[in-house]
Amino acid sequence: MLAIALAHALLLPLSAAPASPGRPATPAEARAFVGRINAELEPLAYRENTAQWIAGTFITGDTERQAAWATEAQMAATTRAILEAERFRGLRLDPETARALQLLRTGGKLPAPVDPARRAELASVGSRLEGSYGKGKYCGPGGTGTCRDLGQLEETMSRSASWEELLDTWQGWHAVGAPLRSDYRRLVELGNEGARQIGFRDMGELWRSGFDMSPAAFEADVDRLWAEMLPLYRELHCHVRARLQERYGKERVPDGKPIPAHVLGNMWAQQWDALYPFLEPYPGVAPLDVDGALRAQGWTPERMVRTGESFFTSLGLPALPATFWERSMLVKPRDREVVCHASAWDLDARDDLRIKMCIRPTEEDLRVVHHELGHNYYQRAYQAQPHLFRTGANEGFHEAIGDALVLSMTPGYYARLGLAREAPADERALVNFQMRVALDRVAFLPFGKLIDQWRWDVFSGKVPPERWNAAWWELRRKVQGVEAPVARSEADFDPGAKYHVPAHTPYTRYFLASVYMFQFHRALCRAAGQTGPLHQCSIAGSREAGARLAAMLALGASRPWADALQALTGERRADPSALLEYFAPLRTWLAEQNRGRTCGW
Ligand code: X8Z
Ligand code: ZN
What we know:
- 58% of the residues lie in helices and 3% in strands.
- The chain is built from 24 helices and six strands.
- The N and C termini lie far apart (59 Å).
- Zinc ion is lined by residues 371, 375, 399.
């Protein structure tokens, strides 16, 4: 009944939706409504999480359908609640109720159309897209070789230096995107319809609305952050390009041009740390071969996760529950298709925490383990909050917790883990280590920004489907200084070859996290009583830092994110100064290397 009445109401603009008959709504009713919605949505989230977990750890048509049904139910209840809450618009509400209603409206990233058939279609298209990506393979070269999954292809991308082999691998994986295009098109149409029905111009506007400021102010803030960090990125880009010219020649890696996307050690050229052995500023000085040590010592995935857990417990946070170890997926199963892209879960908001990951014994995966555990510890810390507040202060916060701790994984910390030898402090060793971190964190910045720049334009219609791939590469060239290694066309759909696009996960969160993690690190270092340079600080073992972190995590989304930031750092704005301070030594070194070179693209 209710759904039908609402569907009719939707034929009118939202503001003209008929008020409920009788008295106008009151603030007390709004408060009671939020209580009811929290109670109603909580079990639906549990069901959806359960179905999604099963689908992600066992991809079949059946599990995909089950997941879509659970999503559909959750979407239906959310849309209904959002439309019902229109009654309270304009009322003077207590801050908690106002915030809960705001989060209700902006929390869902895939807003469903009111029409049940279209809602069902959206849920099933969304589910299918993630499944198709998860099953993606390349059976090459030339369609004749054995089939390799993304994990295997990524290994080649990070290890090989052969132009041809890298090109073949890059093209092989990017072909996975093309068949997703038509589903993606439908996802955009239906998601936009859902967004309009809850009062947004399109999904992009909805995505930009979750940051306690207007969508336009948010966009400007992201641009501000990028402008401050761009000079550092340009120095790194310039140096890496010059070195790649030595490897491949200037015909293949020309001066003044974007770098071909397949030679940066990563399928998406998003992080370049795999190139470290080649780019090591002072070869052989304080060698740090964590990959080699993990392999030589036979580290198991479980040991890597236990090591991650012990970082958190060293801060005074509790050990993970026994069920975490029973239920997590830490290795890729041999007998079924799964979504390997790492994720962290809290199924029931009562301690059923898990991670899902296909762990390999590499330094990168050790870092990702910490990243995922950061999510789990955040989820656990805000379990006492009401359902609508059980999320990060903003999306970027959630992505920054584990990574802030990773900044404490200094060479000294690796030495304590037995994964490196204790090396004396030395200026050259410092530059070496900074290069490793920069190839990961600084290289990532423009990539972290541009994915949603592309999607915002796709959602708004500014970029029509006939230009989707062209617009993608324009941004990659312009923002990142990276170029497709072979001609691309609209028969390709390269954004579809990056998990977060088919999985419909916003990406600006990672860009923000790149800034926040350094701010968090700086504040935690101070809390730990460390007064030396940021890049030397490790908070491992500091109960004081742990207590500060825990206090912020426990807030969940109950307060505006600036309050949460202030609780931890005393600051109220995203501020790249911590990142720039951290990399100051490397920046000086890069500037010297680049003297006389033509930088930019
Ligand atoms: O997707 C992730 C995490 C899960 S939230 C593994 N990350 C982004 C990516 O892989 O593209 C972490 C860094 C950026
Ligand atoms: Zn994450």
